[in-house]
Amino acid sequence: MTTHDQLFLLTPNFADGRVGTGIFHCPECAQVEGLLSYYPYLRGRVDVHYVDFARPRAEIVPLVGAENQSCPLLVLAGRPPEGMAVRQHDASGRWFVAGAPAIAAYLAAVHGIPAAHP
To answer: pLDDT per position in the chain (118 positions), as tens?
Structure first.
């Protein structure tokens, strides 16, 4: 088991035939990528993984199940601090945080970056 939280972001510049032609990026993944740019020391505290858009996302499914493979996703290395807005996967027992706003709040509370302005 890793000693760091694991952050999963979609690799940019992907196609999605379900919504038409063209190349896309994930806006929420870009937000989290921005936090990593603002606070580069996070890369030493969180293992960052870039995954392909196509599902199933083989790197994520064993950790938190197929139903929780949306990105951005932060899979925690251990038990979260009391009172944090996190979810636990029933089968694996792993704790995780989904979505850019929740991930930013967790990073602020646990890894010391400033909180988002309200």
So the answer is: 568 999 999 999 999 999 989 999 999 999 999 999 999 999 999 999 999 999 999 999 999 999 999 999 999 999 998 888 899 999 999 999 999 999 999 999 999 999 999 9
Is 44 a member of any domain?
Answer: yes
Looking at the structure of the chain, the number of domains it has is: 1
**Among 43, 47, 32, residue whose Cα is nearest residue 103:** 32
> 108 and 115 in contact (C-beta within 8 Å)?
yes
Q: What angle do CA 73, 67, 1 make, to 5 degrees?
A: 55
Which residue reads 């599902």 in tokens?
55
Which residues constitute the domain of residue 50? Answer: 1-55
Cα(31)–Cα(14) distance, rounded to whole angstroms? Answer: 17
Is 37 within the bounds of a domain?
Answer: yes
Among candidate residues 87, 92, 36, the one with its CA nearest the CA of residue 63: 92
Q: What is the pTM of this model?
A: 0.95
Residue 80: asked if its preceding bond is cis (omega within 30°), the reply is no
